[in-house]
């Protein structure tokens, strides 16, 4: 998932440089959503791992 976030970020940067504002904004928004989903899943998996070790 982090890979796709980075891909969309690169697409947003390239589109922004080339002057495609709509595509750049949409790609940046998708990259941001994917990055925060990645962070949420990371925190959930870390908490689940800690809970599994304690029992």
From TrEMBL:
Entry-linked InterPro entries: DUF1328
Pfam families registered for this protein in UniProt: DUF1328 (PF07043)
Keyword DNA-binding appears in the UniProt entry: no
Family indicated by similarity: Belongs to the UPF0391 family.
Taxonomy, superkingdom: Bacteria
Keywords for the protein's UniProt record, in alphabetical order: Cell membrane, Membrane, Transmembrane, Transmembrane helix
Protein name: UPF0391 membrane protein G8E10_00525
Membrane topology note: Single-pass membrane protein
Species lineage: Bacteria, Pseudomonadati, Pseudomonadota, Alphaproteobacteria, Hyphomicrobiales
Keyword Ion transport included in the entry's annotation: no
Residues spanning the membrane: 29-51
Source species of the chain: Ferranicluibacter rubi
One cellular component (GO) term of this entry: plasma membrane
Locations listed in the record: Cell membrane
Entries under HAMAP family matching the protein: UPF0391
